[in-house]
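I'll show a record.
***
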Amino acid sequence: MILLMVLPALSLGLTSITYPSVYVNSSAIVSLAEMDIARGPLMYNVTNHSACVFWRTTDSTNASIQYGLNTSLLETVSSSTLDTVHRVRIAGLQLGTKYYYKVVSDGVPGEMYHFRTAPADGQAFKMIIMGDNRPISDTPVQPQAFSDITDRVIAEEPNLVVLTGDYVYSVTTIAGDNIAKWSAFKAIIDQAAHYAPVYAAIGNHDTGLWTGTLILQYFLDAFEQHNEASTYFSFDYAGVHMMILDSEATNTPLRITGDQYTWLTNELQASQGRMKFMIAHAPMYPLSHIGSSLDVNITERDALQQLFESTNVTVFAAGHDHLWNRITVNGLVHLITGGAGAPLYHTLWGGDFLHYTKAEVSRNLVDISAIGLDAGVKDNYVLPYVGPIEIFLRVVGNTSTRMAGTVPSIYFSQVPAQKGYSWDGAPNATVLTGLPAAPGPHILDVYAENGDSVWSHARFVFTTSGSITTTTTTTTTTSQVPGIQVELILLAGAAGIVIIIVVLVLLRSRRTG
């Protein structure tokens, strides 16, 4: 049985926005004027047996969808209701199946596209995660790299696409400027949304908060957020619980607090999903925006980490830093995937390349790859991870110069059975102290033993300059400061400066390119 359901436009309580009917920002875009389509079609809310399609017409028209298992498009659903905004849900579809479709407005068909229904719970699917495509300046023109990456994403034929924020340079009080900037962005991302649902976290550049007030209507209009007019929401896909978080458009930017934290806690505790993915703009362990991400309040950041650990969150993915990186803290994988076109950030940790992230998910496996603009796999990581403990350094970069007493931030991919720290060859200590007082270079050796009695070792080099009050810290889950991926960072930070020794930390974490 085929069910047609024409969904009403969401009432957001916002000023309506009028957009031009033809987008010409990308060479891949087909003129829409002849089809009377101002925007779309876009896929959203795709489940095992149903899918929703959105499109907007310049004039009030009726709405039809022709679809089928091949390009013959033998099935049709129709509505005689006249409107400019069309949201149509088709039910009775086969699970995990590819369908071809066209939207038809007043008898005029659009281009043919295809989508795939969600597979059964536990079956394999492909998800793309990317973000930070914004221009380098306050212009509507999107980076060419963003268009190129979007083309590659379409070629991947993912089941869904998730974005981590910063789609335009700014949102202002000038409506015409905002419309131009968001139209240029949508002209590109809509090319992917023809084929797969696109869900998005809001970035700090997308809120308009710098004007003194939140201006959210442009962000909310840009996406069909699983039928949710909200900056944070959740949904299930193939047995995986997906949660889109808002780290920006709140009364407390860069903090997950209040109603959102209560909602987050309740969602995680109630979820029966075998895996849980968190998506936000600001990372918990940044490399560049240190102290201006979700680490702005360390106590709250640590509480989030503990909440995620206690509820078996699988991956936390973010952007904000324009680079790629990974850190695993006590079994929870943190990704920064902010390389979709914005100007790259160069840090001692590396990862400064344009990219998108591909996550291939099945019942008991997550295969994560950072794919560069050249289509090469820049980094790969597989869950569950099997091997020695990985050791990560954050905030204070390897080979950097710091005041005496500065305590490096060390993280472990799992809680060590034993750990040790040694400055300049001294006997191991279980408590990490700060940089030695003597000016000049110093070597820090870090050791960690896993449950199989396998030891990992990492060596870092710092230079002492001046002195501060010496403090100590234990390296537990809730360490003082953030970080990301050690083995990549060490190699990048040490290039041409000092030989770094990283022993027994690379099993099943493969890097190419």
The domain at 125-383 is CATH 3.60.21.10 (Purple Acid Phosphatase; chain A, domain 2). The radius of gyration is 24 Å. The longest helix spans residues 175-193. The first strand starts at residue 4 and ends at 6.
